[in-house]
Amino acid sequence: MTVTIYHNPACGTSRNVLGLIRNTGEEPRIIEYLKTPPSRGELVSLIDRMGVPVRELLRRKGTPYDDLKLDNAALTNDELIEAMLAHPILINRPIVVTPLGVALCRPCETVLHILPDPQRGPFTKEDGEAVIDTAGRRIEKATP
Known about the structure:
The protein is 22% helix and 15% strand.
């Protein structure tokens, strides 16, 4: 197994990313992070490997973000990480780990940059948007 996804099955983006991973023929290691949250060391490692600021990994919608006043700029990275560990719903998702890198895969197409294997066929997101064509190539959106 070469791909791991920190997954929330209730999240459409997370389900789409899982579908894109499976479309390569890979069955990833699935960690439902709300049931099995990462340890402090794992979370810090993921953030470091993604190369993103801790705040970028915070999810606001549908979380206690506002109640915890996490928009306070005086909060340290350690305090933000502690909040995510205490309330895993604050961790934005999905996070995917592959031999090619680690990424927060929002939008879902972000995962295509770190998958070690190519897409095997067409893929359409849950909202009906075609992302991969029948030859396994990404469908580029037309720019206005």
